[in-house]
Every structure is written in structure tokens, then in C-alpha cells.
Amino acid sequence: MPRAAGPGYKRGMLLAMSGVRKRFGATLALENVTFSIEGRAVGLLGPNGAGKTTLMKVCLGLTAPDAGDVRVLDLDAVRDPNAVRARLGYAAEGPGRIPGLSGLESVAYAAELCGVPRREALLRAHDMLDLVGLDESRYRPVETFSTGMHQRVKLAMALVHDPELVLLDEPTSGLDPESRDELLDLIAQLRDRQGPAVLLSTHLLHDVERTCDACVIMQAGRVLFAGRLDELRQFAPATWELRLGEPSPALALALTRRGARVEPGPRREIVYVTLPDGAGPDVLWAEAAALRLPIVHLEPRASSLEEAFFEKIGVPMGGR
After folding, report:
1. For 43, phi and psi rounded to 5 degrees?
2. Other C-beta atoms lying within 10 Å of the C-beta of residue 41
3. Which DSSP helix (H) or strand (E) runs through 280?
4. What are 282-287's contacts with CB under 8 Å, separation 24+?
5. Structure confidence by residue, pLDDT tens digits, 145-173
6. How far apart are CA 40 and CA 213, in angstroms?
7. CA separation for the pair 60, 38 (Å, rounded)
8. SS3 30
9. In sequence order, which residues have a C-beta less than 8 Å from that of residue 225 and are 6 or more positions away?
10. What is the dihedral of CA 170, 175, 176, 182, to 10 degrees?
């Protein structure tokens, strides 16, 4: 009989953890991690050392937690890691190549390790190399591949056995801008087609904003947020776009004294004003009226993922 799931678990979630802890010697890698998340592509965000790789290995059953419940695709990853791994694909950080094998042989070998018969493994390997754009390099030894090609072949190896969820650990690390864009396009294709769901571990906000519909934010072994990106953006402070008839340093000074943050806009008469907690746009109207300045235009400014992220981890945008 399966054990009862912990309070962090919700049926139908992509991933769910409850009270997960993991220590390596004096280092607490995961501390009371409790969350549940769903989505076609989920970003695992956080600085280096936040615990992202440890969390992925716990999901894969490669690292056993010291305490807590872990559910992946409705399966118990602690009790039945083999059943979980059969439904997952994984591309670890780093080269991950087997010298002496071609790209085709590498991908076919990954399929055979997952139980796919040799002939079918080769056919699938050809398909996966076509998908990731390595069709013309399939017979080249992997040690001759560039960094971008290595990332692509690792993705093909993670996909070849038709998993339901693929875990990608820093897949754009070390790539030049063009290769990075191409790999992110591939991840977006997986998200939009009937392929596997994606868990993308990265410290790059742009990669998550480009490819994901939800995210988990980690810092120092803790989960600070788990949910959709549009929910995350709500954590950004309220910012207003204010346009006057002419530039006014006096208004910027007055608003700063009221605890607001004033930043220049694209034109001299436009400023972006971030109000302190509890303050509303009436503050802007009152200060402008006191200085006899007409407000030509005023509207809320859409929060960026970057603003919301730094607000959530407790780092002011101006203090990075």
C-alpha cells in the first residue's frame, strides 16, 4: 500500500515535495522544502549553490533525502525511484560525453540503457538528432563537438526514450549567444508540442522568461516561490509611468522624500516611480499639484520578471 503523501503534495502536480531536507556534512543543501508545481515548462531558478542540482537529483532518486516526501508525476520518488526514472529524461550539467562514440552511437546507447532494443534505439537516435539539429554531424566523434553541439546531443540523449518529463541542468552554460538562442528555441518547441514537460534549472532569468510558464525560486536550500510566472510578477513593487509636460527634478526630489524610487524613462519628461508599500497614485497627484505641474499621462507599468525575482529574494533592484 502506498504511503500517504505529505501536506505539500497535490494530485496531478508535476512535482511536489513536503518537508524535504538534505545535508552533506556541514552543508544543508535542502531545508524543509515544501511546494507543488505544474506546467508544461517549469524553471528552477536560483544562484549557484541554491540547491537546484540537489533538488533535481532527489527528484530522480539519485540522492535520497534525509527527511520528507517527494512526488514526481504522481509517483513516490523515495519509495520507487526506478519507476520515476523510467518516466524521466535527464541532461546533467557538464560535457557528459563518452569518448570514442559518435553522436548517433551516444544517443542510441542512452536509449538502450533505458531498455529500448538496439534496432529501435538506432531509429530513435536518428530522429532525435534530426530534432536537435545534429543531423549532419551524427557520425562525428563526440569529442570533436563544440560546446553547443554537446548540449544538443545531451538533450537528444535525454529525449530518446520518450520520457514524460525531462530535467535539464544549466543547458545553456558556456554557450555563445547564437547557440544559446537556438537551444532555448528547442526547449520552447518541447513546451509547445506534444513532447515531454520540461524542468529547466538555471541561474539565468532570461532563459526562464523565454521558455517557461512557471518557476520555482530557490535560495540557500529553501524554496521562496513556486507558481506561474504571472503570479510571480505580482510580487514586484507597484511602479507607475509618469509623464509631465516638462522634466521636473523638483518632483523627483519630493517623491524621493516620500519614500518613492524615481528612475528616468526613455524621454526626459517621463519617469518611472516605484511607490513605498501602502502608497497609491494619489501621492503622485498630490506632489505634482503642490508644484503646479500638470500630469500628462499616468499608468501602471508592467513588472518585469527580473524585478519580481529580486523582490522575492529580498534584493532591491538598485542594490544588486
Report:
1. -90, 135
2. 24
3. none
4. 283/255, 283/258, 284/240, 284/242, 284/255, 287/251, 287/254, 287/255, 287/258
5. 998 899 999 999 999 999 999 999 999 98
6. 7
7. 17
8. strand
9. 215, 216, 217, 232, 235, 312
10. -80
